[in-house]
Each structure stands twice: as C-alpha cells, then as structure tokens.
Amino acid sequence: MILRFSIFDYFRPNSHTTDYGKSMLWFVKFLLEAIFIWPDTERPELLIISCIIIWLAGIFSWWCVFSYIIVNIEDFNKAVYGMCLLSIPTMIVMKMPFVLFKFKALKNLLKQIETEFWPYDVVDSETKKELKEVYSISIGFMFFCFFIVQIYHGATLVIPVFLEERVLPLPCSLPFEWTDGIPYALIYIVHFICLELGITFGVLGLDILILCLCICTSNQYRILRKCFLIYNTVDMRETNDLLRTITKRSMDNYSLEKEYLVRLIDHHNLLLRFTTNLNEVLSPLELGQLVISIMALCLGTYVLSMEELSTFHRTFAFIYLIGFNLQLVIDCTVGAEIYHQATFLPHCVFHSNWMSLEDTNLKKDILFVLQSSQRFPQLMAYNLYSMDMVTFLKIQKFTLSVYTLLSNMSAIKQNVT
User: Fold this and answer.
1) Half-sphere exposure in the Cβ direction for 15 (13 Å, CA)
2) Quick check: 243 and 256 in contact, CB under 8 A?
3) Which GO terms fall under molecular function for this chain's record (predicted)?
4) Cβ count within 10 A of residue 218
C-alpha cells in the first residue's frame, strides 16, 4: 500500500500529468534516487558526489579492461573479448558526466511535464484506455530491461565468489599483484560500483528516463489529436471548461470556438518547443550512445560465435547482446513513436468540424493551423541522424558486416600462425 501510494502521489496535488505517467516516472525516480542521481532532486550536492564516485569507478574499471587488452593484444580472440567488455565501463564514463552537467535541463523537462502537459481526463474513455495500454506496455518493458540487466550483472558479480581462481567481474590485468587480500577486495568493490550501481541503476535508469520523456510526449500528441477531432462539436465545451482549469492564459474576450482553438494551438507549440529542448539536451548522449552501441554489438556478435566459448559464457554473450539491443531499441522506438503520432495531427485537424464554422476568420486560422501541424518533430543527435527504426536496421546491417570482417581476420590470423 505504501508503494502504491507513492506511485500515484509522486507529483504535487495540482499536477496535470496523467496517473499512468506518474507510474512510469516513479519507477525511474526509484532507480535514480537509489544512488542519489535523480535529476529533480532537491539536494544536488548528493547527485554531484554520486556521479563523481561512479564516474571514478568507471574510469578505474575501464583502465582494468584496457590493460587486459594491451597484455593480450597478440591473442586476437582475447583482445576482441576485452574490447567487447570495454563498452560496459565506457557507458559509465560517458553517461555520468552527462547527468552531472545536464541535471538542471532534465529537471526543467520534468517540471514542464508536471505542470504543462495535459491530463488524460480531457479525452474520451476509449482514448483513456489506449493511453493506459501504452503506459502499461512501457512499464512492462522497463521491468523487462531491468530484469535482463540484473541477470547479467548479478551473475557476473556473484560467480567470481564461487571460483577457486581469483577473478574479477570484468577482465583485468594490472602492473601489480592484485589477487591477494585487500587489493582484490578493493578492486572487486570498484567493479561492483561500476556494474551494479553505475550500469544497473545509473545507465539503465537514464535510458528509462528518456523512454518516459518521449512516451509522455508522444501521448500528448494522441491527446491533442482527439481534442482537435471534437472541435466545433457538442463535446468541445466540456473539454474547454476542463482546459480552463489547467492553462493559465485568460481568454474571456474570445468566443468559445476561438478560445478552444487557441488552447489547441498553444499546446501544439508547447510540444514543438519541448521536443526541440529535448533534442538539445539529449544530443550529446544520443551521439555517444550510438558509437558505443555499435562497438558493443559488432564485437559482441563475434564473441558469441567463438568456438572455444562454453555454453555458460555463450549464454552470457547472448544476454549482453540483448541488453545493448534493448538500449538501442528504447531510443529508436520512442523516437519513431513521437514522429508517428505527430504525422496524424494534420489528418485530425482537417477532419474536424471546422467547415461548419460561421466565422470566416476562424476558417482561415484553421488553414494556418493545418499548415503548422505538418511540422513533425524527430528525436535526433545534432541533426546528424534520427532515432528511428531505419537507423536501428542500418546498425544491424553494419553489425553483420563488421562480424564478417572480424571472422575473416581471425581466420587469416589462424592460417598465418
């Protein structure tokens, strides 16, 4: 009961976001607050300290794996294996500075969702059911991602305890004796911070936060479309009365049809500004994540095909690939969803009951709105590439090409030796 109460009472009572959206954001809040890196925290000093500690753990873990690669540079398979696992601490090294420097911007985005996004109460029961299904699927996907990551990193952290040989969760080669006593325990703790706190909560939590921001945005387009469809109908007055309690703009001198239209236009402009700000905030993260994901998928595919790999380690390699594919799927799916929902808006504007308006000026305004509604937002990184399923498929094709190249290189090296 305490958990359920926390879910539906996360935002202040005067919040205008949906209850389903609260559930999504509560789960991310739980993940990020677990290690004090929730961007909407009232104690940013804890966020700064946590990010620095996790980032330093990521730097040290990265150095451990990189040293392993240098030591085994002559062994092609071991070098590739090390480069594959190097992507894990690299995610920490990239994402923690992002959280540190962008937490104020992320906080502003969350505050905008809390105070300015429309609730599901403004739409009909059928649309409410549709929105609830979207949120339910999203929450289920969050838990699935969390479960997959926990399996991988949980087993990676626990297995070394039961082995006779002193090994670490990540491959390691250091210029000093680290397998005995205190050095081994300290390095193990650093790897634990990197994997369990950094990856499981920090990196995954940030990925799910992006999922929440984008799903909330795409669902606002769903709500806006339904509100346009009831324009100049008997349902418009009731919806407009509800919107009056939400929006702060006073329009006492407007007719009902004009007032309602202005509110719709204002909300559309709000969504366009929000997606622009979202792109500005996420661009460095999306660009870095694309590079790391490509490296992880290319090398991970080759590692999965190694003949000397045991069934146990092959299963781990498979889970590794699933994890990085899910990370890529999150960005590409929600980016495509925002664009997809926005493309339906002109259709809804045109098929509203605007032609029966008596005010000629309002009819002209609708034509301008129809033109403006054809501005379709996209989730992009510095305008270099768009996050959609086309990009996802291109990455999969590139992964297969690199896998073929690595396989040929391994075969040539074996023939030479």
Assistant:
1) 17
2) no
3) odorant binding; olfactory receptor activity
4) 22
